[in-house]
């Protein structure tokens, strides 16, 4: 029986059993009732047995059949190793789905599941489920590498770039459309396959040859279905509306052009959407955060607006920016370029000496930025390391920068006092050559300039959110919910073994408790690990239409107001604010926003996650490519994690790799789960968190995005290993699984083993044959 026929029969049985007409009956009675012919009874019984096994049918007293638990619809989130999770709307915890129970679902598919095992509610275990039906496919095409096969390459396979897709895609003759070996291609699914057949596809685009400049990043962009080119009508509309500010535009706006203000951004930034101003009057600070009024150019429901909503956010990759809006706006009329009149929405705040905002006003304004500053320039000025030329050019601005730095410290101290959590992880800047190959990886840490801009944007976002909430108008909030207690309990148990604790009251943790933990571990060997685990114990921030609070910032009201050029929620908020300011928030407009905002919030959250994943994939890929040039070289590092399968080591430039425990020569190493360290069984040698260590790069594999280290001085030991594949990570550890942890790894040959592998294999084959001969002789 074909899979489609079987699923159709299961569907009919489920519909019958869940109808009011059904009365429990035995298998034979059900077969007769459904008029199953005698020749099909065996297949009918097999279908019922499958349904009993997956829980959709249960056997009651006297062998009568009853409907099982109502099937559940959710979204499948695939992971490497062919297992995954099903997320169900309105349900706090998701379902774990093993590789045997995943059917042929792919990441993002809408699936129907049945529960096959309930969790105990302890130890991080989840309810387990089995996918019984694919309701709707989310993936229609993928990116991968083409490998021809058969006589003269008459057919071939596409090996997916996404390791969450566990099967190669078969491309039959006539569907390759000119692709050759090692071409990066986009393949559209013709069939998704089943337990015995691979999925089939047709190549729709040849991106380029693997290894050619730029092909790797374009492949990531295609795999996430991120649109690069704007439709022609959108470009034409952008050109039409991108006009200089006119007298008509200025009418009715607050004129702030005489107020001293600057933009402070990265050196390469071109979409300047925020400017800041500050002056002091007695003990009070008058802070202005001025944001580009993008809605003046992007009208609701226009082609520009529809395209911006579709994209949701700008995407920042190593060698390019894929903007939310065309450059005529993002880098032109909407960008707050110096000494040019610009339209803005300004949040004007009066702040007391303790950092409390005692008065505020949100208004439409016209501004003129005095100077475009970079973070480096402001940092150098405040730290006294600026050149004489820069000091002279900024002599009038310097007192304002000093006041800004002072107010920034006050804001930061106030947030810390209320319990806001501040993670200080360095970002990596990938330096590329003209062909897009990495020539350097540089860590970027927060400094006085980046901090003051962050503090001022946070203040404006809170002020706008609180003002709009109290006005009781429809709105889009940036929400960060309280962490799941299951994860917090796991974190508490984990850190207790390291001598730390967090206080949980009434099955809830206050952000100040996590803040205290981070303060305690600051500067300790375990700081990096505990900080990462604390971050991963929290929920992901998202956009909502209700002010449910922001746990990480320890505040009730928060939104994204300050980046309308690159984030759609900010653009949407500006439109709402302007309706309110202009007295246009009628019942009709309220109903309109009530109708659209929930979907705007949901879609924007999804597009943000897509952009984050693409940016992370490109960064990881470029780091691996960079380390390919350094195989065989030795570096100083610090142990950033220890697990039962290996030791993670982070280099000063944020690059991280792993030493497999079983590959460390001279001893047998075991993982001490209490002290979170690796211990030599015979020598007593210990490898623990935060320990400095010298490592040699033994492999960097772009296919798997993995970097492998050896302890410096032990490289030669790797020559004897014929196989190198990291072990499967058990499902019970998934709560604290690193995002880049291995789950299933492809075998790969190391440069250090080149020339030795075949030789060792021949020896092992001879030994095997010898053993078989002796065994046969004994028989």
Q: Can you offer a commentary on this structure?
A:
The chain has 779 residues and is of the alpha+beta class. It folds into 5 domains: 3-67, Orthogonal Bundle (Arc Repressor Mutant, subunit A), CATH 1.10.10; 72-136, OB fold (Dihydrolipoamide Acetyltransferase, E2P) (Beta Barrel); 141-210, OB fold (Dihydrolipoamide Acetyltransferase, E2P) (Beta Barrel), CATH 2.40.50.700; 232-481 and 539-617, no CATH class; 630-759, Nucleic acid-binding proteins (OB fold (Dihydrolipoamide Acetyltransferase, E2P)). The chain is built from 18 helices and 33 strands. The strands form 10 sheets. Strands 5-4-3-6-7 form a 5-stranded antiparallel beta sheet, with no helix packed on it. A 5-stranded antiparallel beta sheet has the order 10-9-8-11-12, covered by helices on one side. Strands 13-20-19-16-15 form a 5-stranded mixed beta sheet, with helices on one face. A hairpin with a 3-residue loop joins strand 26 (634-642) and strand 27 (646-650). The longest helix is centred in the last third of the chain and has 42 residues, at 587-628. 35% of the residues are buried. The model is unreliable at 719-764 and 773-779 (pLDDT under 50).
């Amino acid at each position: 029986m074909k899979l489609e026929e079987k699923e159709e029969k299961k569907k009919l049985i489920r519909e019958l059993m869940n109808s009011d007409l059904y009365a429990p009956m035995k298998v034979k009675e059900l077969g007769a009732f459904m008029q199953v012919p005698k020749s099909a009874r065996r297949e009918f019984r097999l279908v019922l047995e499958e349904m009993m096994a997956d829980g959709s049918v249960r056997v009651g007293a006297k062998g009568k059949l009853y409907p099982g638990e109502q099937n559940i619809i959710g979204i499948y989130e695939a992971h490497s190793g062919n297992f995954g999770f099903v997320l169900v709307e309105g349900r706090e915890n998701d379902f774990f789905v093993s590789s045997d129970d995943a059917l042929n679902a792919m990441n993002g598919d809408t699936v129907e599941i049945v529960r096959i095992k309930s969790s105990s509610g302890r130890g991080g275990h989840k309810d387990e489920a089995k996918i019984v039906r694919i309701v709707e496919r989310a993936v229609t095409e993928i990116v991968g590498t083409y490998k021809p096969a058969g006589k003269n390459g008459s057919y071939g396979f596409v090996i997916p770039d996404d390791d969450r897709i566990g099967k190669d895609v078969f491309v039959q003759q006539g569907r390759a459309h000119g692709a050759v070996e090692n071409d990066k291609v986009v393949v559209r699914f013709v069939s998704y396959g089943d337990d015995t057949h691979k999925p089939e596809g047709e190549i729709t685009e040849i991106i380029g040859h693997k290894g050619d400049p730029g092909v790797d990043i374009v492949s990531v962009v295609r795999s996430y279905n991120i649109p690069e080119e704007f439709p022609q009508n959108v470009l034409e509309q952008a050109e039409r509306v991108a006009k200089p500010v006119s007298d008509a535009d200025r009418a009715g706006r607050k004129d702030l052009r005489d107020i001293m203000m600057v933009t402070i951004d990265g050196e390469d930034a071109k979409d300047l959407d925020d400017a800041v101003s500050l002056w002091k009057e007695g003990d009070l600070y008058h802070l202005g955060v001025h944001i580009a009024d993008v809605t003046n150019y992007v009208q609701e429901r226009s082609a520009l607006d529809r395209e911006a909503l579709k994209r949701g956010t700008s995407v920042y990759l190593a060698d390019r920016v894929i903007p939310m809006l065309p450059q005529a706006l993002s880098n032109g009329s909407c960008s707050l370029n110096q000494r040019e009149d610009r339209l803005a929405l300004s949040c004007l705040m009066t702040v007391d000496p303790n950092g409390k905002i005692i008065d505020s006003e949100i208004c439409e304004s016209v501004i003129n930025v005095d100077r475009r500053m970079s973070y480096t320039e402001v940092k150098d000025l405040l730290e006294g390391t600026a050149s004489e030329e820069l000091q002279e050019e900024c002599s009038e601005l310097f007192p304002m920068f000093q006041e800004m730095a002072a107010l920034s410290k006050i804001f930061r101290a106030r947030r810390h006092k209320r319990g806001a959590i501040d993670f200080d992880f360095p970002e990596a800047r990938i330096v590329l050559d003209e062909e897009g190959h990495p020539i350097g990886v540089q860590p970027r840490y927060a400094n006085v300039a980046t901090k003051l801009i962050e503090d001022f944007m946070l203040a404006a976002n809170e002020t706008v959110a609180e003002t709009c909430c109290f006005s009781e108008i429809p709105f889009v909030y940036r929400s960060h919910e309280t962490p799941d207690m299951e994860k917090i309990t796991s974190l508490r148990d984990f850190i207790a073994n390291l001598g730390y604790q967090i206080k949980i009251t009434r099955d809830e943790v206050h952000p100040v408790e996590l803040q205290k933990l981070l303060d305690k571990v600051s500067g300790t060997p375990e700081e990096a690990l505990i900080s990462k685990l604390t971050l991963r114990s929290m929920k992901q921030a998202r956009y909502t239409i209700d002010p449910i609070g922001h746990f990480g910032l320890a505040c009730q009201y928060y939104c994204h107001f300050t980046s309308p050029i690159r984030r759609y929620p900010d653009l949407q908020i500006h439109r709402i604010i302007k309706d309110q300011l202009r007295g246009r928030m009628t019942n009709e407009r309220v109903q309109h926003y009530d109708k659209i905002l929930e979907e705007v919030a949901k879609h924007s959250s999804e597009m943000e996650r897509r952009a984050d994943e693409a940016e992370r994939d490109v960064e990881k890929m470029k780091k691996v490519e960079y380390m390919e040039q350094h195989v065989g070289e030795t570096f100083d590092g610090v142990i950033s994690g220890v697990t039962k399968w290996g030791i993670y080591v982070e280099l000063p430039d944020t690059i991280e790799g792993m030493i497999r425990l079983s590959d460390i020569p001279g001893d047998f190493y075991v993982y001490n789960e209490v002290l979170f360290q690796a211990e030599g069984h015979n020598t007593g040698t210990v490898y623990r968190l935060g320990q400095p260590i010298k490592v040699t790069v033994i492999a960097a594999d772009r296919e798997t995005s993995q970097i492998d280290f050896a302890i410096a001085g032990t490289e030669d030991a790797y020559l004897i290993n014929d196989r190198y594949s990291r072990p499967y990570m058990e499902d019970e550890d998934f709560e604290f699984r690193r995002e880049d942890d291995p789950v299933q790894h492809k075998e790969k040959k190391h440069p250090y083993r080149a020339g030795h592998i075949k030789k060792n294999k021949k020896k092992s084959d001879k030994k095997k044959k010898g053993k078989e001969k002796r065994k046969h002789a004994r028989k």
